[in-house]
């Protein structure tokens, strides 16, 4: 039997011999391959044997009853046990042969041999598994399911089990030893073949079989045989290496080595070990390399800190962060180091400055130390919370307890407050605004570490009060910013008084203004003294009452009394306590010859009282000054001392200032280099006394705060131990200041004495809240406390009431000012309305008197018209007319211009009627006619003629001609050209006498219904209905058949931005509008009974098309009711308006249909459908390109040539509008650079270019017949063009310019000889083509 001949299915020996030959080829000669035929025959041999049937098993079995009934035989048994047994034996023999061959290899050669055999064996096993697939599917499956034998596996698992049993169990020790030896070589720096280790490790993982479920695997082999020995070898290796290395090298070098080793092991796991080894390997390495050497590493931390080795510090942090509690000693050492550095820095500046420490130097030193180590924490320690806390604790120590503080913690807040005072006080060294904000943030950094925040508050409030009172604050914004930062750090209560001080300053300013206004109203403003006062709340300002009496000089008493009376009238019930010790004055000298302009002395109020005594004499004794000023010696002596020291006064008859009998003589020879001399200076002794007084006040306030805290705690806890009470007081007050234990005990004794708390009987260390026993002292004490509370609240309410009254007065003044402005603006609006009516009237009369009414405009006339218009524009404006009466013009004005006399030639008109450009004579005549109640233009009103001649000094003949022309524009009710039931095609029947005249376009209706520019207009295709969209966001529908001089409109409100396009669909009875808000809204046409004051009906808004993401500039509605919209988002979207499902049909870009979004892609500006093929659309883009697209496919069919010849990549040369000819293959484009271009639709060539307007072309439209085109431009003109000759046949000025815009839209009626236009002036005009 040949190798390709299939053995008989019932002959096992032949079958196995055949299979064994195939197995030899697969197992031993796998590299030669196995063709598909051989593979199929081997599979068939297994199948035929296992699927064979035994005839003996298919015979019928007689029933026990002996009858002839028969039952079917059971299913034949599954066959395969002999094949499975022989296969297992074959694998055993094959693996024993490989094992014997492996005994000749060692180390790396063994790994190579093992890897090679494993790779070939597993590949061959997969082929064998496929050949014996039928055996797996039936016999093996049945054996496993019935659990007959626990050692039956599928064929592939059998191969792995055999490898593990007959190969791995014998060679694993040598293989693993070789692997570990190879890894050791790699750790020693040698280059190894990592693929060998990877393959061996993978084989270990593959041999992990689950005996309960052969389809699953585990890592038992990998962990038990390899990982355990690998971890042990790694620990021994690194333990030996680390001990040797650290004994021979420095700590930084060891850390580098340890970091490198840890990184290597992590890379080793990723390279060839199983990922689960990471959890076991890395902790062992961290323990050996870091944990075992942590003390040596800790010992090197201080030297690294001293040397500022940030890289090494970061490396140390990274290593010690890996182990438990590895960073704690570092934090302790770091805290001590920072504290030492801060104390040393403060000690150095205290030694350098022999006297008082400069606040700026002190604060800068604190900030410098903090910044240095804060940067170190962020960079070297990665901002770890433990090191941040250590830094804060160290900073708190050296900020509050250093050599400058001298054991107390109240010096730092005082110096910090003085630094803030220097910073916020006016000075040439003040930082810029941005820099000042950074400095204030740094101040708050130091403030965070200050323990006695109440000391800072007290000094800061005093210094703020001085800055505000003396007017030396550098910036109100900076003061407010600092208070806001303090409020954020300590809460509202901490800064309430500071904020109140700023409020008092603003209220005082308003109070001074009102007082000065009162003086001016009473004609008392010219006093000898310029008086300015600050009224400050006693509860908010840290100011004490004067310690001496003081007689005001007579020059100030008068103003003083006036203000007292004024203030009592404003705020009755308040009492003013004058703080003369804080007052200051400026005295102008006139007695000195050394200065031509005289000196100005800046003095205190007490010095002013002294110096003003010398207005009547040159010398005064001490007793005379004391009597006249009533100052106590404690106040008089310092004032005199400064004046004598500055040599303003000369001391006579005594040695010291203040001696009895001393005389003070005015120095007439006083000289100074300065013109303004400051004599209001505080003595050093006064400053020290003030500081000591402040500290004394702080201690007193603290006692009250501690007592209040104790009472508050006891009211909450009721009963509390003495020690616990002290601890609770410290906890509650440490955010404001750190109370001392002796002080707390003293406060407890005071409260015990006052019976606020009491001791528990027989337990002296336990405090309790006293029982409520009503006795006379307690009741009196309670009443006193409540009375003081009531008085305090009453004063606060009075202050608040005064503030509100001041605020109300201010708001009332603002309201009156706004009302005055409103009245003024209303007067101006009325004047502008009157002037606008006069200007429009003059324009219409000038238009009627400048051109003949019989002949249409030729090219020559058009040119002359253009020149005349230019001349009018350049003429100087007319002087303003007198104000008109408050009459409102109607929103719609209908005019019918009739010529009741035979028209004159153009030359005659120009000769007879000459209206000067600088005098609006016709407007003035119209004004007089409006003032005449019963004026009839058909009557020869002699009285009116005489009145005009006298008023304007005109001749009788000229007045009659002007009256005749002014009467042409007078509206009459019977002259309405559009009325109910009117047929617009019969316009020629109205003026039968004018039938011989050529037809021209004339304005018939002026609609003033919008509040802003009208940007879009359109007609109903079949009816006399128009729609307009405006910058005011509204769409209005005008029923022109109902118009009788009143507004026949319906308003659509829905857009949130400018309306840019409107269209009316007759088939759908809908209105479409687009806007800059990127939406298209669909409206129902309103009913015929809509009036000018009909409410807006929200139900008319049918739907909203949402798809664009930017402004929509244009859209077109096709005959098939497809809507194409062009948007600034770079897309043209096609909407199926009749669809009931997805409205969006397709979306086009400059390149066609594209999902890619690019910002540099050109955006469409205008669209139009191809008139002959509605499945094509023409689009103009911002780059002046015009392209034709196929709507269905989105492909670019054509790019028109020559459209971008003048394009210079700016808005000034883009295309604003395109329109297609209704009957001819022509496309017309209007450009921003004033040109109009014509293109052949078939070839895409530009066939003609012409200058269309004097400014940008904004609108184009062609009538239904295709003979005439209308164009509008920003030059405010509308031009009509003959499309046959491409010449202008008529031009007229339609709208006034506004914001460099003129005519914005002009459209023909599709069915009637009517035209509509909208402009920047907010007006809609309706034109008729007639005589």
Automatic annotation (TrEMBL):
<dbReference type="GO" id="GO:0005829">
    <property type="term" value="C:cytosol"/>
</dbReference>
<dbReference type="InterPro" id="IPR036322">
    <property type="entry name" value="WD40_repeat_dom_sf"/>
</dbReference>
<feature type="repeat" description="WD">
    <location>
        <begin position="1105"/>
        <end position="1145"/>
    </location>
</feature>
<dbReference type="InterPro" id="IPR045093">
    <property type="entry name" value="Cullin"/>
</dbReference>
<protein>
    <recommendedName>
        <fullName>Cullin-1</fullName>
    </recommendedName>
</protein>
<dbReference type="InterPro" id="IPR016158">
    <property type="entry name" value="Cullin_homology"/>
</dbReference>
<keyword id="KW-0132">Cell division</keyword>
<dbReference type="InterPro" id="IPR020472">
    <property type="entry name" value="WD40_PAC1"/>
</dbReference>
<dbReference type="GO" id="GO:1902531">
    <property type="term" value="P:regulation of intracellular signal transduction"/>
</dbReference>
<dbReference type="GO" id="GO:0019005">
    <property type="term" value="C:SCF ubiquitin ligase complex"/>
</dbReference>
<dbReference type="Pfam" id="PF10557">
    <property type="entry name" value="Cullin_Nedd8"/>
</dbReference>
<dbReference type="GO" id="GO:0005516">
    <property type="term" value="F:calmodulin binding"/>
</dbReference>
<dbReference type="Pfam" id="PF08232">
    <property type="entry name" value="Striatin"/>
</dbReference>
<feature type="region of interest" description="Disordered">
    <location>
        <begin position="870"/>
        <end position="911"/>
    </location>
</feature>
<dbReference type="GO" id="GO:0031625">
    <property type="term" value="F:ubiquitin protein ligase binding"/>
</dbReference>
<keyword id="KW-0112">Calmodulin-binding</keyword>
<comment type="similarity">
    <text>Belongs to the WD repeat striatin family.</text>
</comment>
<keyword id="KW-0677">Repeat</keyword>
<comment type="similarity">
    <text>Belongs to the cullin family.</text>
</comment>
<feature type="repeat" description="WD">
    <location>
        <begin position="1250"/>
        <end position="1291"/>
    </location>
</feature>
<dbReference type="InterPro" id="IPR059120">
    <property type="entry name" value="Cullin-like_AB"/>
</dbReference>
<dbReference type="InterPro" id="IPR036390">
    <property type="entry name" value="WH_DNA-bd_sf"/>
</dbReference>
<keyword id="KW-0131">Cell cycle</keyword>
<dbReference type="Pfam" id="PF00888">
    <property type="entry name" value="Cullin"/>
</dbReference>
<dbReference type="InterPro" id="IPR036317">
    <property type="entry name" value="Cullin_homology_sf"/>
</dbReference>
<dbReference type="InterPro" id="IPR016159">
    <property type="entry name" value="Cullin_repeat-like_dom_sf"/>
</dbReference>
<dbReference type="InterPro" id="IPR013258">
    <property type="entry name" value="Striatin_N"/>
</dbReference>
<dbReference type="InterPro" id="IPR036388">
    <property type="entry name" value="WH-like_DNA-bd_sf"/>
</dbReference>
<keyword id="KW-0833">Ubl conjugation pathway</keyword>
<comment type="pathway">
    <text>Protein modification; protein ubiquitination.</text>
</comment>
<feature type="domain" description="Cullin family profile">
    <location>
        <begin position="411"/>
        <end position="644"/>
    </location>
</feature>
<dbReference type="InterPro" id="IPR019775">
    <property type="entry name" value="WD40_repeat_CS"/>
</dbReference>
<feature type="repeat" description="WD">
    <location>
        <begin position="1052"/>
        <end position="1088"/>
    </location>
</feature>
<keyword id="KW-0832">Ubl conjugation</keyword>
<dbReference type="Pfam" id="PF26557">
    <property type="entry name" value="Cullin_AB"/>
</dbReference>
<dbReference type="GO" id="GO:0031146">
    <property type="term" value="P:SCF-dependent proteasomal ubiquitin-dependent protein catabolic process"/>
</dbReference>
<dbReference type="InterPro" id="IPR001680">
    <property type="entry name" value="WD40_rpt"/>
</dbReference>
<keyword id="KW-0175">Coiled coil</keyword>
<dbReference type="GO" id="GO:0051301">
    <property type="term" value="P:cell division"/>
</dbReference>
<dbReference type="InterPro" id="IPR015943">
    <property type="entry name" value="WD40/YVTN_repeat-like_dom_sf"/>
</dbReference>
<dbReference type="InterPro" id="IPR019559">
    <property type="entry name" value="Cullin_neddylation_domain"/>
</dbReference>
<dbReference type="InterPro" id="IPR001373">
    <property type="entry name" value="Cullin_N"/>
</dbReference>
